[in-house]
Amino acid sequence: MPAPKPRNPNKRFALTPESKEEGIRLNKYISNAGICSRREADDLIKMGMVQVNGQVVTQMGFKVQPKDEVRYDGQRLNPQKQVYVLLNKPKGFVATSQGGKIKRSVQELIQTAAPFAVPPLGDMGRPVTGLLLFTNDQDLRKKISQSAKGLRMLYHVVLDKSYQLASEEKLLREQTVFDRNIKLNQIKPIQGGKKNEIGVEAYQVSPSMLIKLFENNGYTIQNLDRVMLGGLTKKNLPRGRWRTLTDKEVNFLRML
Asked: N or C: which end of the chain has fewer CB within 10 A?
């Protein structure tokens, strides 16, 4: 028996509508993403310009499932409006990327920002306060998480005892925390603050990592407040309040 011919990965892949009984029709999905009308979307599908999970779909009536990845002309589509929210998180609320039902979730604080849940960019425990970014823009989330540096973060840290300059050299070395190598940029005293208050600058270091790093070096963080996140600040944003990012701020994040 002759060997089967190898499959051509570039060959168009047409699925019948019956192959997926639930979900949203592909032309509606494209329209909801703001690309064009449903009728124009039908033309794009016929021309083979739309991919679902990496395969070209040319069949009318194909239905997209929630976990499917849809791309038009190489660009990933999202049927929901892209939302970018900055929250000044108060104590007592928790942010987690794990999902599930959580008491006093940060989602309660931004529930009027969109008619659907917008995931936070990173986790933040109940005792931690400060800036937290939310977005359903998957391309931006991926770009930030995979960038060489990530977002620049500035924390206001209150320690359980006076900060000793002798600790600084060790604290600024690259260290392994939660199986990841991290390095702080700089540590500075808070102007007008107490001896146990410092400012810590780092790139893509989460609050839990920072708490653990100081713990490994003989300090306990009593209060932790993120005052800057990727160039975004708490200016005119009281604790517990949120605002949407401007187009300029979103474009800046995309340039990172």
From this structure: N
Among candidate residues 150, 220, 211, 158, the one with its CA nearest the CA of residue 189: 158
175-179-185 Cα angle (round to 5): 35
* Structure-token pair, residue 243: 């605002």
DSSP 17: G
Helices marked H in 111-159: 138-146
What is the end-to-end Cα distance of the chain in Å, rounded?
55
pLDDT higher than 90, residue 192: yes
Do residues 132 and 147 lie in contact, with contact meaning Cβ atoms separated by under 8 Å? Answer: no
Kindly write down the DSSP assignment for every residue of 57-119, as one continuous string.
---TT-EE-TT--EEETTEEP-SSPP-EEEEEEPTT-BB-SS-S--TTBGGGTSTTS-SS---
Place of tokens 């494209």: 30
- pLDDT tens-digit readout, 36-79: 888 898 999 999 999 999 999 998 889 998 889 999 988 888 77
